[in-house]
Write a structure and sequence with these properties.
It catalyses: L-cysteinyl-[protein] + hexadecanoyl-CoA = S-hexadecanoyl-L-cysteinyl-[protein] + CoA. The chain is mostly helical. The protein has 10 helices and 6 strands. It folds into 2 domains: 145 residues, no CATH class; 162 residues, no CATH class. The protein starts with a helix and ends with a helix. The structure holds zinc ion (2 copies).
Amino acid sequence: MSRLTNCLGVVSQVFPRVSVTLLVTWSFWAVLFKVILLLPPFAGCSGVFFGIVLTFVWAMCLTTYYCVLFVGPGSPTEFPMLVVPGYSEDEDGNSNMAGEAMHPPERFVSHSMMVKGNGGFRFCSKCKCWKPDRSHHCSACERCILRMDHHCPWFGECIGFRNYRYFMQFLAYSEVYLVLVTWVSCWVLVQFFVNNRWSVELFSFHVLFVFCLGLVFTLSMALFTGFTLYQVLRNKTTIESYEMQRYRRRRHNVGNVFDLGWRENWRVVMGQHWWQWLLPVTYSYDVGGQCEDADLYANGLCFPLETEVASGLRLVERLERVSGELERGLLRR
Ligand SMILES: [Zn+2]
Ligand SMILES: [Zn+2]
């Protein structure tokens, strides 16, 4: 049974990757060899220019696609400070650890916002690790994913903290690519069958298939890209858009505490400069100043909070510390 499950797992990863690569490359080949290099009007400068633009967009589609796969979403299990190796559970779900042994590292606690329904810190018993804010366990990948957005069947991979920007770039380049191939194949079909411009011997069914598939994918990708862009500007993951989050000391729904305003939300995910938005180069968010926990922010273990929420949380923590100290002082007397 486990062999069958493993087999299905491999197929669900390999099949979409091979299909997407073949589909994108076949449509590129069809437009290049059956339209640009074959039909007379494309022999001039405009044809060369169109060919160069199409080649660039096609290459960027595949590059960003494989960046999503090779970079991966990132997992909290890669950080030893979050892993509890000795953890185990009996059949009733009772853990073998309690008290201090089962307390997350202090450095992690001070930055955590999200909690479980009972107010405790989030822990994954399958991965035996503490779950940073916005991370979730993916049953398809069988591991926890940092800032998990969704498990994408077109990649056979999760979209999360590290590969989200490449995913966004892939969506944008694919949409441009689809518009280009659909438009050019539509124009060629009109010239053949409405204007009777060329003899039917020059017609290729590949162009017809590119147009049909291109039309379907252009429309569906446009909707999905629009939705993803909207999510980026609100700094919300797909999971967060349909699941209510529980925040520490503010367990009722206070909205999205990670929403920093659309400009900053865009920069957090896509980078500070235009070339980081367009090119698949490495980028990690810089919280600025002399933050001693900058590495936690850069690795997706914690996230900048909306100013009002952050200052409110700091105030509550300060009050709790003072009241605790007062209580201890009174008890000593
Ligand atoms: Zn997990
Ligand atoms: Zn997954």
